[in-house]
Amino acid sequence: MSPQHICSQETAANTAVQEFLENMGGEELWKSTNFIYLKEKMWNKQANVIDMEVWLDLTSPKSKIKLKNETFDRVRAFTEHGGWGKLENGRQYEFDSLRLKQEIANWKRNIYAICRRIALDKEELTFDLKPNNILEIYEDTGTLLCIVELNVNSIPIKWVMKSSYGEEVTLHGPLDTFGRYRLPGWSTSQDGHWQFEYVEVKGYKTAPNISFEPEDH
C-alpha cells in the first residue's frame, strides 16, 4: 500500500470522526463534559416501561443506574474498586471480579466516553475507516475499543463495544436534541431484547454530589 493511499485513508477517517463529533454536539461541549446524567424510558421483554436514571462519571470508572416501574425497583452501581446492586426485596449483592471487569471495559467504550475522548485526547486514539463507513476506534496501544457504523452523514447507526469480555451491540435511531447534546432519539439491542428513549440529558463540568457506594454505607 502506497504512502499516498495510507494518507488518504487517514484523512478520510479523521474527517468522519470530526463530522461524527460535530453531529453529537461538538468538540467544545464534549471537552467540558466530565459527568453526564441521563433520564430514559426503557422497555424489555420482561417488563413494561421502566423509568431509568443513569449517573455516569466520564473521568474515571463510576456509574449508577436506577430502574423503576410499578413492579420493578432496582439499583446498581460500580467504581474501579467494586460494584453492587439492590433488588426489589431490599437484598444487596456485590459484583464478582469478572462482572466488575466487564463493566469497566464497557465504561470506556460507551458513546459518551468516546465522544469525550475524541474531543480531549484524539491523538491518543487511532481511527480506521473501513468500507461502508465502518469506523474502528483503537487505543494508541492497539486495543480495539469500539466499531461504529456511520451513515453517509457520519451519524452513528450501530455501535459495537468490543473487548476481551465479549461485545455489546446497540442500534441507533436518528439523532434528536437534548439541551446542547445531540444523541440518538432511540436505541435498541441488536436482538430487540431492550429498547430505550432519552427523556433528559444533562452534562456537568464538575460532578454533582452522587454516591456510588452501597446505600447502607
3D architecture notes:
This protein has 217 residues and is α+β, with helices and mostly antiparallel strands. Helices cover 22% and strands 46% of the residues. The protein has helices at 3-23, 27-31, 97-107, 111-121; strands at 35-44, 47-57, 62-68, 73-79, 82-86, 92-94, 125-130, 134-139, 144-150, 156-163, 166-172, 175-178, 181-184, 186-189, 194-204. It has a 13-stranded antiparallel beta sheet with strand order 6-5-4-3-2-1-15-14-11-10-9-8-7. A two-stranded antiparallel ribbon has the order 12-13. The chain is globular and about 60 Å long. The N and C termini lie far apart (59 Å).
Rg from Cα: 18 Å
In helices, the fraction of residues equals 10-25%
Shape: globular
Find the CATH topology.
Answer: outer membrane lipoprotein receptor (LolB), chain A
Labels describing this entry:
217 residues; alpha+beta; outer membrane lipoprotein receptor (LolB), chain A; 13-stranded antiparallel sheet; 15 strands
Question: Any chance you could write out the topology, listing elements then pairs?
Answer:
Elements: H1 3-23, H2 27-31, E1 35-44, E2 47-57, E3 62-68, E4 73-79, E5 82-86, E6 92-94, H3 97-107, H4 111-121, E7 125-130, E8 134-139, E9 144-150, E10 156-163, E11 166-172, E12 175-178, E13 181-184, E14 186-189, E15 194-204
Antiparallel strand pairs: 1-2, 1-15, 2-3, 3-4, 4-5, 5-6, 7-8, 8-9, 9-10, 10-11, 11-14, 12-13, 14-15
